[in-house]
Structure formats: C-alpha cells, structure tokens
Amino acid sequence: MFSLAKTNALRPALLALGGSLAIAASAQIQVPMQPVPMTMQSLVVLLVGVAYGPRLGAATLLLYLAEGLCGLPVFAGFRAGPAALMGPTGGFLLGFVPAAALAGWLAARGWTQGLWRSAALFLGGHAVLFAFGLAWLAVLAGPERAIALGLLPFLPGTALKSALGVALLRGLRRG
C-alpha cells in the first residue's frame, strides 16, 4: 500500500519518465539534414520546461541524456551512447537542460501569458539551444561552417516550432 509521502515522491519521477519518453519520440520526427538533423525535440524540450518548471524540467532532460548515454536509442535516428554527445549534435543535446530550465523559469514568472511574451519564451529557449549547439559545432567544424550548417538552415523551422508552441499554449489557456 502506498503512503501519501511515497505517492508524492513517485509523481515527479513518473512525470520525468513521461517527459523523457516524449522527447525521445520527438527526436524521431525529423528532417534528415547533415550534420545535424532537424527534429521536433526543441519544441518538446521547451514545452516540458514550461509544464514542469525549471527544476523538474531540467531533471527530465538530465534523465533523457542519461538514458541515451546508457545506450537506450533515444537520440535522433535512434542513436545512443557517448559518441552522440561527442558528435555534431552534442552541444544541442547538452543545451536541452538549460533551455528547459529557462523555459520553466520564464513560465513560472508569467511568460506564458500574452502572445509576445510567449513568443519571447520560445525564441529565448531556442536561442539557448543554438548557443550550446553552435559553440560545440564550431569546435568540430569551425565557426563559419557551424553557422552555415547549424543555424541558417534551422531558422525557418525554429520560427515554425516557436509559433506552434505559442499556439499550443494559447489553445490550452482557452480550453
């Protein structure tokens, strides 16, 4: 029989597991591009941060990364292992943690209310992802190639995913 204390401790663990599974599923929805695929992960990462808050959001992303490092095929293209973090997508994967934390922090301060604040939340979260991703990609390929391969092709998709995130938040508020 569960006590109330055990149930309260179980809830965040189950939420983190569910969030990590959602992120893993979103990693498989992709447009194959080289060297970094375009996936739906960034949208789900930011939504997890918004829904879970900064601490549980970041913890969920740490769980996701640990799952991948342990060999579970949760990264894009069903990849797993340390090589995925050392490759071109590594910076983006590591950037998921602070991006979710930022989204959760902003959401806790009312940034999901209003069109422009919600848009700023999603664009800011994506900016964190790009900062981490491009920094690592620049180490591997040089700054110019990092911008050409890891930023410019992703701007339209980032705008679309940010708009979708805003629309989801607005729809949830009305429903």
From TrEMBL:
Membrane-related topology note: Multi-pass membrane protein
GO MF annotation, one: biotin transmembrane transporter activity
Signal sequence segment: 1-24
GO cellular component, one term: plasma membrane
Pfam families per record: BioY (PF02632)
UniProt keyword terms in alphabetical order: Cell membrane, Membrane, Signal, Transmembrane, Transmembrane helix, Transport
Transmembrane intervals: 37-54, 90-108, 120-141, 147-169
InterPro entries, per database record: BioY
Lineage top rank: taxon: Bacteria
Compartment annotation: Cell membrane
Family to which this protein belongs: Belongs to the BioY family.
Name recorded for this polypeptide: Biotin transporter
